[in-house]
Amino acid sequence: MDCLFCKIAAGQIPARPVYEDEDLFAFADINPQAPVHILIIPRRHIASLDHSAAGDAALLGALLETAAKIARDKGLARGYRVVINTGADGGQTVDHLHVHLLGGRSMAWPPG
Ligand code: 5GP
Ligand code: ZN
């Protein structure tokens, strides 16, 4: 499949890995928007959150649990933000489900 994040998860395109297991892969964002900016993805191709199904509940839970674990490992005790951009209006630019973990600075609300 011609998918950038599938290729990153498969090691065909280099990335800075942060965490990996059988189901998930996490790596540094190439264009960081905060001192810590990590992407967490399922190894299996799911185009977006809108393409997930009832059977993906455990996988979705694991994505969030892993975001929290990485945040603790990175020392983000002051807080952090977890974002899943979905679809065109959501600002999604890579069509493989990914969780952004952002931290190391204070975040504004609402987002742009
Ligand atoms: P989206 O806008 O779809 O929510 O986020 C896509 C993210 O992927 C962006 O933050 C962008 O910087 C990141 N990204 C795009 N291409 C690459 C790449 O080749 N390597 C890495 N590590 N990140 C990428
Ligand atoms: Zn993919």
Structural summary, described in words:
- With 112 residues, this protein is an alpha+beta fold.
- It has a single domain (4-103), classed as HIT-like (HIT family, subunit A).
- The chain contains 2 helices and 5 strands.
- It has helices at residues 4-9, 57-73, and strands at 17-20, 24-28, 36-42, 80-83, 99-103.
- It has a 5-stranded antiparallel beta sheet with strand order 1-2-3-5-4, with helices on one face.
- Strand 1 and strand 2 (24-28) form a beta hairpin.
- The radius of gyration is 13 Å and the shape is globular.
- The termini are far apart.
- The model has no long low-confidence stretch (mean pLDDT 98).
- It binds guanosine-5'-monophosphate (5GP) and zinc ion.
- Residues 3, 5-6, 45, 96 line the site of zinc ion (ZN).
Query: Portion of residues in helices?
Result: 10-25%
Radius of gyration: 13 Å
Q: What is the first-to-last residue Cα distance?
A: 32 Å
Total strands: 5
If strands are numbered along the chain, what order do they take across the biggest sheet? 1-2-3-5-4
Count of spatially separate domains: 1
| H/E element sequence | HEEEHEE
Query: Helical element count?
Result: 2
- At CATH level 3, the topology is HIT family, subunit A
Outline type? globular
Average pLDDT number = 98
Overall structural class, as computed from helix and strand content, comes to alpha+beta
User: Oligomeric status of the shown chains?
Assistant: single chain
Low-pLDDT residue intervals, each spanning 5 or more residues: none
Measured by DSSP, the beta-strand proportion falls in 15-25%
Unique ligands: guanosine-5'-monophosphate, zinc ion
CATH superfamily: HIT-like
| CATH architecture annotation name | 2-Layer Sandwich
Q: What CATH first level would be assigned? A: Alpha Beta
Q: How would you characterize the largest beta sheet?
A: 5 strands, antiparallel
